[in-house]
Amino acid sequence: KNQVEQSPQSLIILEGKNCTLQCNYTVSPFSNLRWYKQDTGRGPVSLTIMTFSENTKSNGRYTATLDADTKQSSLHITASQLSDSASYICVVSPNYGGATNKLIFGTGTLLAVQP
Amino acid sequence: DVKVTQSSRYLVKRTGEKVFLECVQDMDHENMFWYRQDPGLGLRLIYFSYDVKMKEKGDIPEGYSVSREKKERFSLILESASTNQTSMYLCATAKTGARGHGYTFGSGTRLTVV
Asked: Are A108 and A88 in contact (CB under 8 A)?
């Protein structure tokens, strides 16, 4: 069964510190892997997207890495800010062929940044 | 920027009511999706549509139906709302062949059924 698992479930860090969120997946073959940020009560917003051939992708203080051999991805947040407090969701797009855009979602890591 | 607009941020409905959740997009995306999001379960696909008047069941279609009469609008219908349909509902759109690229979510509708 295609799955996406994230760890930790929740995380509390102090403002200014770095953190790393993990994503393990069993989806195969896959087309791309995406990290979303979801603020409380809002829809998810894309942070990064990587195809299976990419190892890393950055978006400001967010850096995602991908190891397609071990089926692992991580999201590293540098110099955290209070506004980084949100749920971070790892999403994998299977490569089923055709035009279907079905995605497989992890359950997210809830990050709280404290002053 | 693609805009995906969901008509209501918060809704409170009574058990047994018929509920309509509306989603409108302003780009020319062929694909539209309805998800529900519950704590600990992540996003689960209810229905999706890859063209006008076309619809496909997702993973949890029971108790829901959809309508896509125009390309820009995708409606989710709860024929007879029940308390277990209390959830956050998210609409998303994507261009055909994009394989996740350009996938865009609306802001969500928090539905409470009492």
From this structure: yes
Among A36, A24, A9, smallest CA distance to A111 is for A9
Tokens describing residue B16: 């047994």
> A interface mutation test: which of B5, B50, B103, B109 has the most A CBs within 10 A?
B103
10-residue stretch averages of pLDDT, chain B, 114 residues long: 86 97 92 92 92 92 96 96 97 75 87 97
Q: Who wins on pLDDT, A87 or B42? A: A87
User: What is the DSSP code (8-state) at residue A44?
Assistant: -
Which residue is closest to A87 within chain B, CA to CA? B42
A28 C-beta neighbours (distance < 10 Å), count: 12
Which residues are paired to A91 by β-bridges?
A34, A105
Contacts of B55 (CB under 8 A, 6+ apart): B47, B48, B49, B66, B68
Chain A residue numbers touching B43 (CB-CB < 8 A): 44, 89, 105
Is the CB of residue A47 less than 8 Å from the CB of residue A64?
yes
Q: In percent, how much of chain A has pLDDT > 90?
A: 73
Q: Tell me, what's the pLDDT at B85?
A: 98
C-alpha distances (whole Å) from B59 to each of A22, A98, B33, B53 are 25, 19, 12, 20
Confirm or reject contact between B84 and chain A (CB < 8 A). Answer: no
